[in-house]
Specification:
The chain has 409 residues and is of the alpha/beta class. The protein has two domains: 128 residues, 3-Layer(aba) Sandwich (Rossmann fold), CATH 3.40.50; 262 residues, 3-Layer(aba) Sandwich (Rossmann fold). Helices cover 44% and strands 16% of the residues. The chain contains 17 helices and 13 strands. Strands 8-9-7-10-6-11-12-13 form an eight-stranded mixed sheet, with helices on both faces. The chain has a five-stranded parallel sheet with strand order 2-1-3-4-5, sandwiched between helices. Helix 2 runs parallel beside helix 3, helix 3 runs parallel beside helix 4 and helix 6 packs across helix 16. The longest helix is centred in the N-terminal third of the chain and has 22 residues. The protein is globular, with a radius of gyration of 22 Å. The structure holds adenosine-5'-triphosphate and magnesium ion (MG). The site of adenosine-5'-triphosphate has 21 residues, from helix 6 and helix 14. Adenosine-5'-triphosphate (ATP) binds next to helix 6 and helix 14.
Length: 409
């Protein structure tokens, strides 16, 4: 189940806390913000783009039906669940006619509230898919693999930050898979402590389904979930091609996006991932050896896959080292799809703090480029507003202030 981002709107602090407590127990639901009046709620929906607004019928500052209509018809197409202390039929009719997805009366039952949110969210997803011209709702997720034949080219940095950008800007669940099986480090990069990893999953891959998969995922504050590499290298060989195939099959059904980080070289598990991949991000840098290896890898990739499946990404694109991005394009005979600048200060601080820079340094050029790439993958135009600020606002509301001292810089 995808993570459902929720905004709570209630004029009573006590009721807001009660709603928060009821929802906090469900791992699929993420309360991103709360508002004490209708106008604030409308603003939050605009800036935070939640999936569902849970709103008290007597919210001050704006009539609940006006707020409902505004939110449902907004660009965000947020769903609305109205809660009330009394079941007043004319009021119920007014808010339902305005577009509310459900009306619940207090005292609230946790299971009923969660179930209502999930049903409303499912309608929101369908509406969004139709609005984006998708017609039939495609429930299959997109698999994006970051690959480079060259060690240390920035695969993990790109995969981690791209996945966070997709989780923060897109809708639905995003899972980051660490296929760097011997020396995976995405748990460190995200500052999470996985209880289960691919090593445990490999023992049971024959029985794997979406429910079992959840127990092997570790949630990050950005909303994405990590399928971590084994904690020690000796488990790497237990993760076979069949395990990878099974993992991707299950994740594709339950996620919007799956981002895979790979080791350098060409392992059979990496090939299995590339076979199931929709977008191969072939990462290269401005040095002769990397370029040579990228050419060999690209020649192989274009023989195996349609070229539109491959996006060439140039990391440290602004380095002044005697080779230019134009040289790369003419040597490889392939267009560069994204230029990621070099920024040692931002990257190293982010790694040392365990906080992806698309969140902690949203305005840095390197973050903006990766968020831009995320939008390209989503097939959407980046919003007019400062999209990096959007990630910052979202993170801030998720209570990550202490580690986000750089927000807005
Ligand atoms: N755009 C960048 N600007 C500055 N430093 C960067 C950039 N990209 C990567 N780095 C640095 O390069 C190093 C290698 O990055 P990373 O671990 O992402 O590479 P990798 O390709 O995953 O390596 P491996 O092949 O070992 O898995 C890190 O120390 C990181 O801080
Ligand atoms: Mg790596």
């Amino acid at each position: 189940m995808a993570t459902i981002n929720v905004v709570i709107a209630d004029s009573s602090a006590e009721s807001r806390e009660q709603l928060n407590n009821l929802l906090s127990g469900d791992t699929d639901i993420n309360v991103v913000a709360d508002a004490s009046d209708g106008r604030e709620a409308a603003e939050l929906v605009k800036s935070m783009r939640p999936d569902v607004l849970v709103c008290d019928v007597n919210i001050g500052g704006m009539d609940a039906d006006k707020l409902t209509e505004q939110v449902v018809l907004s660009q965000e197409q947020c769903g609305v669940v109205i809660v009330s202390s009394v079941s007043d039929i004319p009021v119920v009719r007014t808010v339902m006619q305005a577009g509310a997805g459900d009306f619940l009366t207090r005292p609230l039952d946790r299971a009923e509230l969660v179930d209502s949110l999930k049903r409303v969210y499912s309608t929101v997803q369908k509406r969004r898919a139709l609005a984006s011209g998708g017609g039939e709702v495609d429930t299959k997720g997109r698999i994006v693999t970051v690959y480079s034949p060259q060690g240390g080219s920035g695969k993990s940095i790109l995969a981690g930050n791209l996945a966070v950008a997709l989780a923060a800007h897109g809708s639905g669940q995003v899972v980051l898979v660490d296929l760097s099986l011997q020396f995976g480090n995405l748990d460190l990069m995200l500052n999470v402590s996985p209880e289960n990893t691919l090593a445990g999953l490999a023992q049971k891959y024959n029985e794997l389904d979406a429910q079992m998969m959840e127990t092997y995922l570790t949630k990050h504050d950005s909303g994405l979930k990590l399928l971590s590499a084994p904690s020690t290298p000796q488990y790497a060989e237990t993760i076979t091609v069949y395990v990878v195939e099974q993992v991707l099959e299950v994740l594709r059904e339950s996620c919007s996006y799956v981002v895979i980080d790979t080791p350098s070289g060409m392992q059979d598990t990496t090939l299995a991932a590339l076979d199931g991949t929709d977008d191969i991000l072939l990462l290269t840098t401005l040095d002769l050896l990397a370029l040579h290896n990228t050419k060999t890898a690209l020649d192989m990739l274009v023989q195996m896959y349609p070229p539109e499946k491959i996006r060439l990404v140039l990391n440290r694109a602004n380095s002044d080292v005697g080779i230019t991005p134009e040289d790369v394009e003419s040597t490889l005979q392939f267009k560069i799809a994204a230029h990621i600048p070099s920024d040692g200060r931002v990257v190293v601080t982010s790694v040392n703090e365990g906080m992806p820079f698309v969140m902690s340094q949203p305005n840095a050029e390197i973050s903006r480029r990766i968020v831009g790439l995320a939008y390209e993958i989503m097939g959407k135009e980046p919003p007019d507003e400062d999209m990096a600020q959007f990630v910052a606002a979202s993170a801030k509301k998720k209570g990550m202030l202490s580690s986000l001292l750089g927000v807005g810089r």
